[in-house]
Amino acid sequence: MDWGFGNPNKTAVLIGCLMAACWLLARIRRGGFALALVSLVALGACLIHTYSRGGVVAAAMGQLVMLARVGRPWHRGRVIAIAVAFVALSAYATWDGTGAARRFGQSPASDRSISNRLAIWRAAPRMMVDAPVGWGSGRSGWAYAQWYQDPSTRYEYRTLVNSHLTWLVEMGWPGRTAYVAMILSVLAVCWPRRDGSAVPCAIWVVFLSGAAFSSTMEAPLLWVLPTLSLLHSAWGRTRASAWPPRAIWYSIGIGSVGAVGAMAVAGALTSPHPKIHGAPGTVHIGDSGPLFLLPDPDTRVLGTHYGMEIRRLCGDVHRPQQWIVCQGLRLPKGFADETPEQTVVLSGRPTNETIIALKDFQEKRLVWLNPIDGAILVKIISLQEAPIRAFYGQRRSDSGVREFVEAAKTRGVDHVGIRGAAMYLRQWASLLSEDKKTE
């Protein structure tokens, strides 16, 4: 069950928020409580059918907030009714007919979705330390898959399967601090007053908790209820002149800095090998040895997990290397261009930005893996002063490779055909080593 979201975790967060909001029906004088309870049970059954464990935890936390703020003394009949409702939902969740029991009963050791999440989340603090200005919008999943994922697994990720960590990793330290402060401020505004409703706070607890288990905050529709809840709470506090005292805001500032500082310390306590320095659009791996610059990696040529191969090359203590992988041919800010041995590595079809930037690297050795066509080769030759060597798959049958080979022969460019290879060059790293041996 996903209600059109295409992701049951997002559906579960929406259901959890609705389960908190349905208690507003209890304010109806006649039959309001019964209507709220029936709505709660119906939504709870839908929640079970999402099979989202994170969604169930988030919804439960929202209900706990409501339970903690219920006025005393409790009405005995209502307590019994609520208890029966939750027992019925629990029994329904454990009934084999729903299939939810098997899903909810899986352990981290037997469920990849749990173990993979834990591995990603453990790497997040180190990713923050390695990229003080952030990895850049939309690049957290790519950064983890290439530079931090265990080589024994080769999964691709779009996010860090956690909205909070995704945004914290993609932002720099000031943004990270502001993000934590924003969350604490929202909770402070929505925190139930003595004469106020706990529903807004419960909705935000569900929303924030669900985002800790999956990347749910990216769905605009899920922001509707939390936004309305925040506006309602702010309006109520304004009418009653009951905004949190100054001490609360001071505590939020101190707590935000402390929380981000704790993440920085946790990340600094791990020391990855090789060293990684990330920034939006560039990443520098390794700190010694010859330097290779790889602009705009073409996954058709290098494979989707080329970063793992680069980590292996840079981690070789006997023959260390350092690599700069970038969008467009450029060096990271503050990078001292003092490495005597530098090589530009092109793959597939370089972008126009990269071709233009080659004039600043015209004295650097250039290796081109599986060039696309001869026209680009001619343009690059006009910009390049240092030798050019190219490798291409002999099994390629496209017109581009024929144009390239003809242009290479005409212009005297050293080119080597790789037997058994087409567009993907499985042993591309060894080709670079071979190229150095033949200098």
- Count of DSSP helices? 18
Instruction: Provide mean pLDDT, rounded.
Output: 88
Rg measurement, Å: 28 Å
How far apart lie the N and C ends? 61 Å
In terms of DSSP E residues, the strand content is 5-15%
Task: Please write out the topology.
Layout: H1 8-21, H2 32-48, H3 53-68, H4 76-94, H5 100-104, H6 112-130, H7 140-147, H8 163-170, H9 173-190, H10 199-211, H11 224-240, H12 246-268, E1 276-279, E2 282-285, E3 291-295, H13 299-302, H14 306-314, E4 322-326, E5 342-347, H15 352-357, E6 365-369, H16 374-383, E7 388-393, H17 399-411, E8 414-418, H18 428-437
Parallel strand pairs: 3-4, 3-5, 5-6, 6-7, 7-8
Antiparallel strand pairs: 1-2, 2-4
Helix pairs in contact: 1-2, 1-3, 1-10, 2-4, 3-10, 6-8, 6-12, 9-10, 9-12, 10-11, 16-17
Provide an overview of this structure.
This protein is of the alpha/beta class. The chain has two domains: 8-105 and 192-241, no CATH class; 276-437, 3-Layer(aba) Sandwich (Rossmann fold), CATH 3.40.50.1820. It has 18 helices and eight strands. An eight-stranded mixed beta sheet has the order 1-2-4-3-5-6-7-8, sandwiched between helices. Helix 15 links the parallel strand 5 and strand 6. Helix 1 (8-21) packs antiparallel against helix 10 (199-211), helix 6 (112-130) crosses helix 12 (246-268) and helix 16 runs parallel beside helix 17 (399-411). It is elongated and about 90 Å long. The relative contact order is 0.08. The mean pLDDT is 88.
Which key phrases capture this entry?
alpha/beta; 8-stranded mixed β-sheet; 18 helices
What's the quick description here?
The protein has helices at residues 8-21, 32-48, 53-68, 76-94, 100-104, 112-130, 140-147, 163-170, 173-190, 199-211, 224-240, 246-268, 299-302, 306-314, 352-357, 374-383, 399-411, 428-437; strands at 276-279, 282-285, 291-295, 322-326, 342-347, 365-369, 388-393, 414-418. With 439 residues, it is of the alpha/beta class.
